[in-house]
């Protein structure tokens, strides 16, 4: 199954799909999600940020953020998690999968192009727990916060591995290009 999915991503790895996904990625990251975070902060009456973008493992901080949002910000944040933040992981998973396919096509690590989709699954698991905490407030579950933080840590770790593979692949491609140009 992984081989078939990896092959599917490789078939999408062309400039048309790359352009499509990078434009959507820039739109979501630079406009939709940025404006959503700004609105959450406005509704909260102060700059709190979103749980999705925090680093580290701190369930207490997460529960504190949920409490600080206030009802309007919590409701809006939950709506964003169930709409825009459903589409965004699909967009970045395909974008990074395509980039990894470009860089590792016909190489030993070619199946690495499925890793962004594992990141996407961790992101969805994180989002489910964010929504659960937002909707269950004022009840606060330390167990859900720990689960959320675990998925968030897995999301950031797997995304970091993707970025390392992209940087190594780009460096390798540049070195190969440099070697070819110096030999001619």
Task: Walk me through what this model shows.
With 184 residues, this protein is mostly helical. The chain has one domain. Helix content is 81%, strand content 0%. The chain contains seven helices and no strands. The longest helix has 42 residues. It is elongated. The protein starts with a helix and ends with a helix. The mean pLDDT is 96.
Based on the model shown, name its key terms:
single chain; 184 residues; mainly alpha; 7 helices
Q: Oligomeric state of the chains?
A: single chain
Q: pLDDT below 50 for ≥5 consecutive residues: which ranges?
A: none
> Which descriptor suits the 3D outline?
elongated
The total beta strand count reads: 0
Report the end-to-end length measured between terminal Cα atoms. 43 Å
Largest sheet: none
Helical fraction:
over 70%
Alpha carbon gyration radius? 19 Å
The count of helical stretches stands at: 7
**Mean pLDDT over the full residue set:** 96
- Give the H and E element order: HHHHHHH
Question: How many domains, in number, for the residues?
Answer: 1
- Percent strand equals under 5%
Structural class: mainly alpha
């Amino acid at each position: 199954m992984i081989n078939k999915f990896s092959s599917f991503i490789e078939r999408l790895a062309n400039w048309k799909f790359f352009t499509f996904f990078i434009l959507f990625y820039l739109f979501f990251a630079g406009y939709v999600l940025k404006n959503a975070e700004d609105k959450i902060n406005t509704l909260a009456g102060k700059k709190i940020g979103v749980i999705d973008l925090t680093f580290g493992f701190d369930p207490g901080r997460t529960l504190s953020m949920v409490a600080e949002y206030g009802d309007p910000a919590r409701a809006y944040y939950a709506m964003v998690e169930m709409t825009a933040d459903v589409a965004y992981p699909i967009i970045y998973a395909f974008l990074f999968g395509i980039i990894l396919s470009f860089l590792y096509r016909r190489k030993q690590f070619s199946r690495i192009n499925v890793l962004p989709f594992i990141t996407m699954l961790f992101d969805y698991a994180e989002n489910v727990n964010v929504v659960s905490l937002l909707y269950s407030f004022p009840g606060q579950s330390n167990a859900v916060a720990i689960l959320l933080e675990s998925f968030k840590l897995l999301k950031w770790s797997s995304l970091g591995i993707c970025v390392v593979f992209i940087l190594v692949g780009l460096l390798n491609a540049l070195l190969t290009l440099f070697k070819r140009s110096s030999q001619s």
